[in-house]
């Protein structure tokens, strides 16, 4: 019996696999420093939990409308107006089981066989897999050699355009690199895109974690893009609600219509008690989590300081999300057996021998890097990063 060639070619998410291995070690009784997780280490705000519990008690346990309840769509519209200076109608909004599902359906809804999707490296692991699953081809825009350079320029995009180009994905604040695309950079990219007949998928899920400058939505800065701009967001990161699985898109009505059709044929709806809690979170907005965001910023500064003190190590300037993309290429150049900046092999050594989990750059299309998630305690950061420094010394000494 034959399986799907397209799906058989996909690899399972490497971050999920690494987390599994770290958890196995922990189950075996080892103290593991896990910096591989892509979620805040704090729990959802108690007042949001209360709303869900109350809704459950009131019997809000039935199917809801596919693609999101009117109340949740209204809360999203208000949020997009307040935080992003963007204006949408309910018909332009679709809610789903996390931004991950929404993105999957968005690619299925907008791409055809042979279409090319421009994805700047390093990229979130699921974009390439989802684009491939939709029958299209990811075209990677390589990361600039210079860490301090702008992350993405019109010239970098133009160098990878072909007649088959159908979409561009932007992720700012960025996972895994922790950079934020600045306002003037977004304006330049937006200007370049004005006459391009492509979808612009803007994944803004880390918007509340923009530490360098306030978050800007390219769709608000360059309103002429309205007929191709699709903003994707969710409650996982900014509201520490990863397990609740709430994601949404807002964009041109024909796109929303198709994504909603896919929702009706897949997960159908969010549980209504989760929708009600989400309405409350969206109404409260960034203020609800402001103290947690300050905490994350403090940890970023601590991790940055510790990494700066390491030999042969540098990093992409961390400006947002809760990741630091650590450049270990110089260190691996001096390590026998780690040719071609094999950070995958090094991450295995780091976990097996020093019990520190970090996702290798290969997972995001850039060997020679490690992604540190600093959504963890100061103590863990201090000990874990001191173990990283030791592991790098070990491999340099062969
Ligand atoms: C850049 C980016 N987009 C989307 C997602 C999906 O988030 P969720 O499905 O939890 O809403 C993630 C999660 O790690 C992410 O890092």
Outline the fold blueprint:
Elements: H1 5-8, H2 14-27, E1 33-34, H3 46-57, H4 70-84, E2 93-97, H5 98-110, E3 116-120, H6 125-133, E4 137-141, H7 154-158, E5 165-171, H8 183-193, E6 199-203, H9 218-221, E7 229-234, E8 246-250, H10 253-264, H11 272-284, H12 290-308, E9 314-315, E10 323-327, H13 329-333, H14 343-354, E11 356-357, E12 359-360, E13 369-373, H15 378-396
Parallel strand pairs: 1-11, 3-4, 3-5, 5-6, 6-7
Antiparallel strand pairs: 2-8, 7-8, 9-10, 10-13, 12-13
Helix pairs in contact: 3-11, 4-11, 5-6, 5-10, 12-15, 14-15
Bound molecules: pyridoxal-5'-phosphate.
The site of pyridoxal-5'-phosphate has 13 residues, from helix 5.
How would you describe what is shown here?
This protein is an alpha/beta fold and 398 residues long. It folds into two domains: 5-43 and 289-392, Alpha-Beta Complex (Aspartate Aminotransferase, domain 1); 46-288, Type I PLP-dependent aspartate aminotransferase-like (Major domain) (Aspartate Aminotransferase, domain 2). The chain has helices spanning 5-8, 14-27, 46-57, 70-84, 98-110, 125-133, 154-158, 183-193, 218-221, 253-264, 272-284, 290-308, 329-333, 343-354, 378-396; strands at 33-34, 93-97, 116-120, 137-141, 165-171, 199-203, 229-234, 246-250, 314-315, 323-327, 356-357, 359-360, 369-373. A seven-stranded mixed sheet has the order 2-8-7-6-5-3-4, with helices on both faces. Strand 12 and strand 13 (369-373) form a beta hairpin. Helix 14 (343-354) crosses helix 15 (378-396). The longest helix has 19 residues, at 290-308. The radius of gyration is 21 Å and the shape is globular. It starts with a helix and ends with a helix. The model has no long low-confidence stretch (mean pLDDT 95). The structure holds pyridoxal-5'-phosphate. Pyridoxal-5'-phosphate is lined by residues 38, 98-100, 124, 171, 175, 203, 205, 234, 236, 242, 247.
